[in-house]
Amino acid sequence: MKYMMFVVTDHEPDTTPDDSDVNLWVDEFDSTGKRVIGEVLEPPAKSTVVRVRNGERHVTDGPFAETKEWICGFDILECESLDEAIEIAAKHPMARNGQLEIRPFMVWE
């Protein structure tokens, strides 16, 4: 099953920060095929919001919400179960320096 893992900042990281190299995590799970793809995202100030209301397109620069946390990257995982995805996420440095949100891909009938 595929899972989207959002890598999110957190204003209250673990009291013992993890300064391990995220590339070691990437290499480990790329080599096993558990990590399908992942990327780092630019900060919210670089975002563009697009909406269509009453047939009119509205484009806004910058963040659309005031928040302390923001999505700074993502990984797509291919796992046998949610438990396996959680195990993999717990090894990511951002599990201690930020937070990771895991969501299963919707299975369409």
Write the layout of secondary structure elements.
Blueprint: E1 2-8, H1 22-31, E2 35-40, E3 48-53, E4 56-61, E5 71-78, H2 82-90, H3 94-97, E6 99-104
Antiparallel strand pairs: 1-5, 1-6, 2-5, 3-4
Structure keywords:
109 residues, alpha+beta, 6 strands
Largest sheet, described in full? 4 strands, antiparallel
**Average pLDDT taken over every residue:** 91
Helix content range of the residues, please? Answer: 10-25%
Strand order within the widest sheet?
2-5-1-6
H/E topology pattern: EHEEEEHHE
* Global morphology: globular
pLDDT < 50 runs, ≥5 residues:
none
Question: How does this model look, in words?
Answer:
With 109 residues, the chain is α+β, with helices and mostly antiparallel strands. The chain has 3 helices and 6 strands. The chain has a 4-stranded antiparallel sheet. Strand 3 and strand 4 form a beta hairpin. The radius of gyration is 16 Å and the shape is globular.
Structure summary:
This protein has 109 residues and is α+β, with helices and mostly antiparallel strands.
